[in-house]
Structures are given as structure tokens and as C-alpha cells.
Amino acid sequence: MSVKAGYSTPMLHVAEIEESIRFYELLGFATVDTDRCKPLGWARMHCEGAQSCSCGLTSPSTLPTTE
Asked: I need a labelling partner for 15 at 20 to 30 A (CA). Which of 8, 37, 42, 55 fits?
């Protein structure tokens, strides 16, 4: 039996999911689902066949720096 890959949704780690949602809405994405927490822990978005999932960082200290 062979295994086939199905649909895949990339997960993007972001500092603020609400800001990410607003950005992707400007690109035509619509929010499909969230964890409904305050603040959001993740959100799944969709746009004409493309999907994206934003996941919150565990802490701001995990953000990449340019130093």
C-alpha cells in the first residue's frame, strides 16, 4: 500500500495573531477557524485554494533579532 500526501497548510509563527489576521485580510484571506482564546493562540485562513495557519510564539524573547 502506498501513502499519498493530502492537503498541507503551512504554519507561520507570529508575534501577534490578530495583527497577522488583519495583514492577511488585506491580501484577500478570510479567517476559517481560531482557538477562540483571548489572546488568540492560532488562526487558520483561506484564500482561493491557498491556506495559512498562524501560530503564536511562546514568548516575545523567541523573536529573531538582527543583532
From this structure: 8
The one-character DSSP state at 2 is -
Could you tell me the CA-to-CA distances from 50 to 27, 28, 35, 54, 61 in Å, in that order?
11, 10, 20, 14, 30
Model pTM?
Answer: 0.68
**Cα 53 to Cα 33: distance, rounded to the nearest angstrom:** 9
Measured CA to CA, the distance from residue 19 to residue 43 in angstroms comes to: 11
pLDDT at 31: 93
Q: How many CA atoms lie within 13 A of 56 on its CB side?
A: 16
CA dist., res. 19 & res. 3, Å (int): 37
Rounding to the nearest 10 degrees, give the CA dihedral for residues 56, 60, 65, 67. Answer: -170
